[in-house]
Design a protein that fits this description.
CATH class: Alpha Beta
Shape: globular
CATH architecture: Alpha-Beta Barrel
Number of strands: 8
Bound molecules: pyridoxal-5'-phosphate
CATH topology: TIM Barrel
Order of helices and strands: HEHEHEHEHEHHEHEHEH
Mean pLDDT: 96
Number of domains: 1
Radius of gyration: 17 Å
């Protein structure tokens, strides 16, 4: 199947209120353009250098989602144009994003990354750490960043009931925060292997790569 057909298929399987971010890391401009020509505008990238090159070469109405692990010293390179930063997991990083947003005279939207997996390798804040961050005076001072929601990755496993329980724990935590008056319109979870389960568990944004563009080849 072509990229356009893959895209249409994924789109047909998610409700219209759910945003589909096409994860294009390692994929060529030509491959991205096939999705673009099929109407796709939200793309996700993990690596700053690759994102910079693509942003320079590809159409300006693309909304670039940074979904990788962002180092503080690289924020300034993407601050002028990034649409949404998904993986924020420290006050330090958030302060740097705020600083660069001020320099660029804009408000940068972001998601806090929450750790839900039963693995030591995944990044993110625990629920308690997230509560503490949201309650801190340093957080309240940041005026050029806007919290849009939460992002998470489930365990890397075939065990669907484990993934489901991890997604549900994020959804319950989000509901609890919303009940305290914190607006979180975006819940970013679900990838190629689990996006339908994610949507059923309340995801409003899925990040799908290999199902649209094919398997990634990191050796290129
Ligand atoms: C690579 C990546 C994806 C896409 O993964 P697929 O399994 O190819 O859909 C989604 N989210 C993050 C954070 C990623 O790094």
């Amino acid at each position: 199947m072509s990229i356009q057909e893959n895209l249409k298929k994924v789109q047909s399987q998610i409700p219209s209120h759910v945003c589909l971010v096409a994860v294009s890391k390692t994929k060529s401009n030509e491959e991205l353009m096939q999705a673009y020509q099929a109407g796709q505008r939200d793309f996700g990238e993990n690596y700053v250098q690759e994102l910079l090159t693509k942003n320079e070469q590809l159409p300006k109405d693309i909304r670039w989602h940074f979904i990788g692990h962002l180092q503080s010293n690289k924020v300034k390179q993407i601050a002028a144009f990034v649409y949404l930063i998904h993986g924020v997991e420290s006050l330090k990083l958030l302060q740097e994003i705020n600083k660069q947003a001020i320099k660029n005279n804009r408000i940068i939207s972001y998601l806090l990354q929450i750790y839900i997996a039963k693995e030591e390798t995944k990044f993110g804040l625990s629920f308690e750490e997230c509560d503490a961050l949201l309650a801190s005076s340093e957080f309240a001072e940041l005026k050029n960043v806007q919290l849009k929601g939460l992002m998470a990755m489930a365990s890397f496993t075939d065990n669907q009931s484990l993934i489901q329980s991890e997604f549900q724990s994020l959804k319950s935590y989000t509901d609890a925060l919303q009940n305290r008056g914190i607006q979180l319109p975006i819940l970013s979870f679900g990838m190629s292997g689990d996006y339908q389960l994610a949507v059923a568990c309340g995801s409003t944004l899925v990040r799908v790569g290999s199902l649209i563009f094919g398997e990634r080849n990191y050796s290129k």
